[in-house]
């Protein structure tokens, strides 16, 4: 019998049924999915790991923070949970990771849900994340938290949740910066253009129309490139779709997953939800 890997991802699980692997973005952890898991767990086995170097998954000193390493972490997690194939739900950098796993290990993927993601890191994403790095290094944690909130949330959400800066600041103060920053640099080098057309898994794409981190045109490119994929655009919504539009997002995701499990045809892509 093969020995267990020396490094294992910390994971929160909820529910039973077909496995759904929920992948957070850089500078985040599994708590991103806390609002989504209860609804998901009514029909599915939700598995929300802390990716390497994030949350409770402290990265070993030898970590390269490359895609092969992150992909193998997920394969090990599925093996440990006796999951042959999982639905992948990736947010932001997690969407890049979901695409990479679908390209390299398609036999382990049941479907894809790509949230605030892209086929490659375009100029807008590069400029925004470079500004995050600069502000964090030159102006400190408070300025970084303010900048992050300004960029990732639409103003409707921040106007209604005045404590969001304090919440983000507290989270950032509790997590290391080095690992997530190295992972973000790896993500910025990802380019799936010319390859993602080979994906043959049901795919649901969700994106905020007011996303200033990853422009909504990236979602349309994914829709045009992945055969049979579906697109839902959320108006007056920024980068943080699962948080800003929790109810609508969870409902749309569940509808997609149930249809995949039942073998129903893809829903028409009207583009806006």
Word description of this protein:
There is one protein chain. With 273 residues, this protein is of the alpha/beta class. The protein has a single domain, classed as Rossmann fold (3-Layer(aba) Sandwich). The protein is built from 11 helices and 8 strands. It has helices at 37-40, 67-80, 93-104, 123-139, 141-152, 155-160, 164-173, 178-188, 216-225, 241-244, 246-262, and strands at residues 11-14, 19-23, 45-49, 86-91, 109-115, 203-208, 230-234, 271-272. An 8-stranded mixed β-sheet has the order 1-3-2-4-5-6-7-8, with helices on both faces. The longest helix has 17 residues, at 123-139. The model has no long low-confidence stretch (mean pLDDT 94).
Question: Which features characterize this protein?
Answer:
about 270 residues, 11 helices, Rossmann fold, alpha/beta
Q: What is the radius of gyration computed over CA atoms, rounded to a whole number of angstroms?
A: 17 Å
Distance between the termini: 48 Å
- Mean pLDDT across residues: 94
User: What is the CATH superfamily classification?
Assistant: Alpha/Beta hydrolase fold, catalytic domain
CATH fold node name: Rossmann fold
**Total helix count?**
11
Low-confidence stretches: none
- Please provide the count of β strands: 8
DSSP strand content: 5-15%
């Amino acid at each position: 019998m093969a020995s267990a890997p020396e490094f294992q991802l910390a994971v929160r699980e909820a529910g039973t049924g077909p496995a759904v692997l929920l992948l957070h973005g850089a500078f985040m952890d599994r708590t991103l999915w806390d609002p989504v898991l209860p609804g998901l767990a009514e029909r599915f086995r939700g598995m929300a790991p802390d990716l390497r170097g994030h949350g409770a998954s402290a990265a070993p000193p030898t970590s390269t923070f490359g895609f092969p390493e992150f992909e193998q972490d997920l394969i090990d997690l599925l093996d440990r949970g006796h999951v042959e194939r999982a639905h992948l739900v990736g947010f932001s950098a997690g969407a890049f990771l979901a695409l990479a796993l679908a390209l390299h290990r398609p036999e382990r993927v049941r479907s894809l849900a790509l949230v605030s993601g892209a086929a490659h890191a375009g100029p807008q994403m590069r400029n925004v994340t470079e500004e995050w790095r600069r502000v964090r290094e030159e102006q400190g944690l408070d300025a970084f938290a303010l900048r992050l909130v300004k960029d990732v949330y639409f103003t409707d959400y921040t106007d209604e949740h005045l404590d969001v800066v304090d919440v983000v600041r507290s989270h950032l103060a509790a997590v290391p910066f080095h690992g997530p920053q190295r992972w973000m640099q790896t993500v910025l080098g990802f380019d799936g253009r010319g390859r993602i057309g080979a994906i043959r898994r049901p795919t649901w794409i969700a994106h905020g129309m007011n996303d200033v981190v990853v422009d909504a045109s990236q979602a349309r490119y994914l829709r045009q490139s992945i055969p049979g994929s579906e697109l839902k655009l959320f108006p007056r919504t920024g980068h943080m779709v699962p948080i800003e539009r929790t109810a609508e997002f969870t409902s749309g995701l569940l509808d997609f997953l149930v249809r995949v499990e039942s073998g129903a045809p893809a829903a028409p892509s009207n583009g806006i939800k």
